[in-house]
Amino acid sequence: MAETIFLTGATGFLGTELASRLIQRPDTTVCALVRAADDAEADHRLRAAWQHDRVLCGAVGRQVFSLPGDFTKPGLGLVEKSRQLLRESAQTVIHAGAEIGFEKGKAALYKTNTEGTRNMLEFAGTLPRLRRFVHLSTAYVAGQRAGRIPEEAPAGALFSSLYEQSKAEAEALVRASALPFAICRPGMIIGDSGTGWTRNFNTVYYVLKQILLRKMRVLPIRRDTPVGLVPVDYVADAVLTIAFADGVNGKTFHLTCPRDLTPTAGELCEAVISWARRNLAADLPHPVFLPLPALRAAGLAYNGKEENRKKSGLTNLLMLLPYFYGQQEFDRTNTDSICGAYNLNWRDYLDTILAFACRKNFMRQTGQTVFEQAQVRRASSRYPIAFYDVSASGVRRVSGPEVNQRIEGIRNALWAWGVRKGDRVALTGINSVAYLALEQAIGLLGAVSVPIYYTTPAAETETLLRRSGAAWFFVGDRRMFAQLPKMKTDAAVVLFSAVRQESLPHAMNWDAFMQRSTQTAPVQHPDPEDLATIRYTSGTTGEPKGVTFNFRQLAWMGEVLTNLVSWQERNRPMRYLSFLPLSHVVEGILASYAPYYLLTDVGYYYLNDFGSLTEALPKVRPTIFFSVPRFYEKVWDQAMANPVGKAWKNAKDGAFR
C-alpha cells in the first residue's frame, strides 16, 4: 500500500538517517520540508546535505520531494500547491526538525523547538488522512530529576539547559493535542555504529577530541560516571519501527542505552587511549578524575542564560558538564516491547566512531562545496588562515578576511560580465594570492575553472580554449601574455596578477574588468554532481588530456588529502608552500582545497617565481610541500655533492649523524 511521509529536519543528522531508511521502504514517498525560498533551492539543500549518500541524493525528485517552507512560521510557510499535496496524501508526520545548539539564546530555541512544534501540530490537524504524528524529543526533558525515569513520566521541572526546557514545552503541546501521537526520546546521539558517520561533532565528541589532543588532563567528574551514548542508526531504526507499529499512539519511548551496556567515563577514556596508541601512534596521558561539583553549578548557570553565547573551549565544557553529573536511568519498557531489547556493545563500534571523527578532523559536515568551505575557514578568527606571496622582493601577507573581500569583488564582476553557473572560465598565471582569489571566485559562482599551464604554446592554448568551451581567458603570467598576439580565440581575454596593468588589443586590463564589481552577485547553488573544473595534463608525454572533476569529488579529495598528514601534525599550526604550477592537478587541489579541511592555524605561501625555490624553502620551512620525483632527486644529488652531505651519508647512526 502506497504511503506518504511528511518529514521535517531532513537536512539534519537524524533526519538524513530517517530519509535514507524511508526510501528503502516499498511504495513510500517522502515529502521533506526544507527551509528554502523555492523548489530549486530546496532540492539543492537536500542534495548538498546528502552528498555523502549517492543513493539518497539521487532520490531527490523521484522518491523524495522537497517542499520549500519553514515550520517556525504559521502554515509552515508552504505554498498552496504543497499544502494540497500533503492534505491529499500525507498519512504520517515525523517531526525531527529542531534547534540543538546549546549556545543559542532562549528566543531562538523557543522559536524553533516550541513554537515550531505548535505550528506543526496545527498543520497536522488539517491532514484528513493522518495516521500518526511522531515527535522527536529528547530523554533529557527529564531535567535534573534523578533516579529511574519512567517513559510515561512528564517532563521535569528543573532543567540543565534552555534546550531541554524548550523541548519539554514542545512535548507538552504534543500531549495536549488531539492528534494520534508517539513521542520518541533519544539519548546522547553519536555516529553510525557501522560507518561512524555523523554530521555534528558536538556533545561527547568535544571531550574525545580534547583527550586525543592531550588538552584534557583533568576530567572534573567521577570515573564511574555513566556516559549514555546511543548510535544514530539505532535511533533511526527505532523511530521508524515505532512510526509504523500498531498500538503506540499516545505513548512515549526512551531510545537510550540501558545502564548495564553504558560505558563509564573511566572505561571510555581507557578505550580511547588504547585506540590512539594503535591507530595514531600517540601515547596519551591518562586523565585524572577530579569531581568538581562547583563547575556543574557554573554550567547550569551558563546554560540558563537567555541570550546567545559564544563558543570557546571553556564554554563548551561548561555546557556539557551538567550532563555528566546526572544520575538518571531511563526506563525502556515501551521501547523494548516494540523495538526489542537493545543489544549494541559500545566497545564494538567505538573504533569506527573514532576513526571517522579523526578522518574528518572533527569538522562539522555541512554539505558545502569546497569553495563555500574555504570561504568560511578564511573568515575564522579561532583557526585563522593567512596568505603570503613569496617573491624576490620579500614576503607579503594577506589575511583570510582580506582574501574573502577580494574574492567577493571578483565574483561580483564575473557575474556582472555575464558569467553563470556551468560556464567555462580558463585561467593561467603564477602561483599567487591573486590566482587563488580568481579561482575561488569562479568556483563560488558554480562556474567551471579551466587551468592552463603558463608555458603552453600559443597553438596548443587555442586548442584547449576551444575544446573546453571557455568563454573567458584570464592571463596572469608574462610568458603567456607574450603569446597572446599569436592566438586566435573567441574567448574574452582579461589580464590580471603580474600583467594586470599591461595593454594589448582585444584584451581587457584588470581595472576595466573590476569596474563592474559593485553589482552584488546572487548566491549560486551548484549540485554535488555538477562539473567544477577541467584539469589538462601538461602535454609532456603526448597531447594534453582534460580530466573532469565535479563538486562532490573536489570535496572528497580536499578531505582525504588532509589525512596524508599525521594526526599530531594536522593539529599544529601548518605552513603550506605552493611551488608547482597551480594548473597541476595535485598542486591545484592541495593548494586550493585541502588545507581548508584542517581545524588549525594555516599559512599559505605562494612562490611567485618557480626558479627561486632554493631561497624560499628556508624562509618558509613548510609543513606541507609537494613536488614531482625529479625535484627530490636533484635535491639529493646536490646534497651528496656537498662535503656536509657526504659526511652525513658516510656517518654511522648516532648523535653525529
Provide tags for this entry.
single chain, alpha/beta, 25 strands, globular, 657 residues, five-stranded mixed sheet, Rossmann fold, 24 helices
Protein described:
This protein is of the alpha/beta class and 657 residues long. The protein has two domains: 98-359, Rossmann fold (3-Layer(aba) Sandwich), CATH 3.40.50.720; 370-626, 3-Layer(aba) Sandwich (Rossmann fold), CATH 3.40.50.12780. It is built from 24 helices and 25 strands. It has a seven-stranded parallel sheet with strand order 3-2-1-4-5-7-11, sandwiched between helices. The longest helix is centred in the first third of the chain and has 19 residues, at 106-124. The radius of gyration is 28 Å and the shape is globular. The N and C termini lie far apart (77 Å).
